[in-house]
Design brief:
With 426 residues, the protein is of the alpha/beta class. 45% of the residues lie in helices and 15% in strands.
């Protein structure tokens, strides 16, 4: 070959992101019990419900064929109407929310596509995004590819700390950098990776702080509510989006991947007015519409109530798995000094902190012991911080109860505890 291929800056910046490493590790350690995979539980996937619904949808002669046709870039109006009604019910604000113009609703290929489109619509290299520390690592990859500057904001068991957000924005203002801030990104419910939710008190505070600093140029708050419907103990708080009076600051991203099926990959976004056109233009270039039939499938189950009963079953199953993982962790880790973990009320993840000297990264002795000797895999916590952030803790793990059965979760935690003990005794 005469010359090396010249690739774009964007593709170069996308190189080496966490999701690529993780997938590689999953392939290389296929014989391990996986507490790493963020996949949904296969046992809960609604094969029968999807089959019956598709049968109905395709059984109607004329309409059936239409549903196999392209849709529209943001999703056809009648479908978006169904999704709007669903969201209004979720927010328990049917009266107000039913009036939001349909043009602000966008159906996407999972919420991941919406996250990517938003970053492409808002960011030039060097523009700033503030994220919770830690945060959803795939979104960090999207920001990196865009050349964004990522600023982590201190978080705890109640989500992003408002005071820390205020301090960071004030610092940026003092440094004359406020005009570069585009976005605050928050996973509001049962967050990936920590399982924590932003508390009721913090939601309006985070919104107010974002609005307060939205002066020299607009700062938007991207609320990623991917796990919102996977609540086990108490229903989640009203979204931050619902607290935004004029609805011009918060972008809401939702998905049916976790509650229904990632293979169907339907996402739902609600956008402030000024973002509609840019996002729609970019999406037009990408795909001029996400899979139309899949949107019909979700919309039909939303309308006839089968979605609601399905999600109730999904919650039951995950609640059992969450309990199984926490019971095993309590048993295996309680007597280890300086090991702590969060107790999630929903979602798919438990976040564990080890003593500071025990690193958890792919190249650490613990990761090697876990995968090669004890045959168990986890997600190193450091992937969930910006890669160039020197203060990032190196001793944390994301443990998922997504894919394994209750029995195998128990076994996986036993193996992990053996691996950790082997390092503590070194
Ligand atoms: C926090 C968060 N947001 C968004 C997504 C994207 O999911 P999807 O594109 O399937 O909707 C995920 C997937 O794991 C996630 O964890």
């Amino acid at each position: 070959m005469p010359h090396t291929l010249t690739i774009s800056d964007q593709a170069r910046r996308a190189n080496g992101q966490a999701i690529g490493f993780l997938m590689q590790q999953a392939v290389e350690n296929a014989d391990c019990l996986s507490l790493a995979a963020g996949l949904v539980d296969e046992q809960t996937l609604p094969a029968e419900l999807a089959r019956i619904t598709l049968n109905e949808l395709l059984g109607e002669p004329h309409k059936g064929r239409q549903r196999l046709q392209y849709g529209t870039t943001q999703g056809p109006d009648p479908l978006r109407r169904v999704f709007r009604t669903y969201l209004a019910a979720l927010e328990q604000r049917t009266d107000q929310l039913e009036h939001i113009p349909l043009r602000r609703f966008c159906l996407t290929t999972g919420s991941q596509q919406l996250l990517t489109l938003i970053v492409r619509a808002l960011f030039n290299p060097g523009d700033i995004c503030l994220v919770a520390a830690p945060t959803y690592f795939v979104f960090l990859g999207v920001l990196q590819a865009a050349g964004a500057t990522i600023i982590p904001v201190q978080s705890d068991q109640n989500g992003m700390q408002p005071q820390a957000l205020q301090t960071e924005l004030q610092r940026l203002q003092d440094q004359g950098q406020l005009h570069r801030v585009r976005l605050v990104y928050i996973v509001s419910d049962f967050e990936n990776p920590t399982g924590v939710s932003v508390s009721a008190e913090r939601r309006p505070e985070l919104l107010q702080i974002t609005k307060h600093f939205s002066q020299e140029s607009r700062i938007l708050l991207l609320e990623d509510a991917a796990y919102r419907e996977l609540h086990f103990d108490v229903p989640p708080q009203p979204s931050i989006w619902s607290l935004d009076d004029d609805q011009q600051t918060v972008i809401l991203a939702q998905t049916f991947s976790k509650s229904f099926s990632p293979g169907v990959r339907v996402g739902l976004g609600v956008l402030p007015d000024e973002l509609i056109q840019p996002v729609s233009d970019l999406k037009g270039n990408d795909d001029f519409g996400s899979p139309h039939l899949n949107q019909h499938l979700i919309a039909r189950t939303l309308k006839n109530g089968t979605y609601k009963s399905h999600v109730a079953k999904v919650r039951e199953s995950y609640r059992g798995k969450r309990n199984a993982m926490l019971t095993a962790i309590d048993r295996e880790f309680s007597n280890l000094t300086d090991v702590t973990w969060y107790r999630p009320n929903g979602g798919m993840y438990v976040w564990m902190k080890l003593p500071e000297h025990i690193e958890t990264g792919f190249n650490s002795p613990l990761f090697r012991a876990a995968t090669q000797q004890h045959k168990v895999m986890y997600v190193p916590g450091e992937l969930c911080y910006p890669p160039d952030w020197p203060q990032a803790p190196r001793c944390e793990m994301r443990l998922s109860y997504g894919v394994l059965s209750e029995e195998l979760l128990d076994e996986g935690i036993c193996r992990l505890a053996r691996a950790v003990r082997s390092q503590l005794s070194q």
